[in-house]
Design a protein that fits this description.
The chain is of the alpha/beta class. The chain has a single domain, classed as NagB/RpiA/CoA transferase-like (Rossmann fold, 3-Layer(aba) Sandwich), CATH 3.40.50. The chain is about 20% helix and about 25% strand. It is built from four helices and twelve strands, in the order ααβαβββββββαββββ. α3 links the parallel β1 and β2. The longest helix is centred in the N-terminal third of the chain and has 15 residues.
Length: about 190
């Protein structure tokens, strides 16, 4: 699969370009399955982990089947609470309901999990750079959340082909990925 062409230079223009590409994508089931397979190969041999993941929006990779394929791990899904994300452990996608911005999220009555206990974060984004840079949707939820997680948590950006470029613009508060999961496999990002 081919990578996306380089978007224009300003963050808002990049977001606009990535959103346009997301809307133009057919259902990315095949690419999602390829990414899940690469993640499964890594996670099926690891000790049980506390893994933060996300509910896919249109054009993003759907990772939700992993909670059924790898049930020995604790799966944490985010919930928007004010300007922050809280994580809640679920064991089935039926525990998710439409929440902020129409994104499926856990019921707010479920206990909030300590972000310092997360071992692995599967991170969404509008676009990713091969250098580990990430362009989010512009509200800063993940940048604030990632900076609050424990220092040794591994952060893996989940990038479909249309979401991957050489680099996206960053600012001082932007968090970088440790690895990228793509249809081609798991790739380490340069250390920061």
């Amino acid at each position: 699969m081919q990578a996306a062409s380089q978007p224009p230079p300003d963050k808002s223009e990049w977001r606009q370009q990535f959103r346009k590409q997301l809307r133009a994508q057919p259902n990315p089931e095949e690419a999602s399955a390829a990414i899940r397979l690469h993640l499964t190969h890594r996670l099926e041999v690891s000790e049980p982990l506390r893994i933060a993941t996300f509910s896919a929006l249109r054009g993003e990779a759907d990772l939700s089947p992993l909670i059924y394929e790898l049930p020995r791990h604790d799966w944490l899904f985010p919930r928007v609470r004010g300007n922050d994300l809280t994580f809640h452990r679920i064991s089935t996608t039926s525990e998710l309901q439409p929440g902020a911005m129409g994104i499926l999220e856990p019921d707010g009555r479920l206990p909030v999990e300590d972000s310092q206990s997360i071992d692995l974060i599967l991170c969404p984004g509008l676009g990713f750079g091969r250098d580990g840079s990430r362009l989010g949707r512009g509200r800063g939820f993940y940048d604030r959340t990632l900076s609050a997680c424990r220092a040794n948590a591994t952060i893996i950006g989940i990038a479909l082909p249309h979401q991957l470029v050489d680099a996206v613009p960053t600012e001082a508060h932007d968090c970088f990925m440790d690895q990228l999961a793509t249809v081609d496999g798991l790739t380490p990002c340069p250390p920061r």
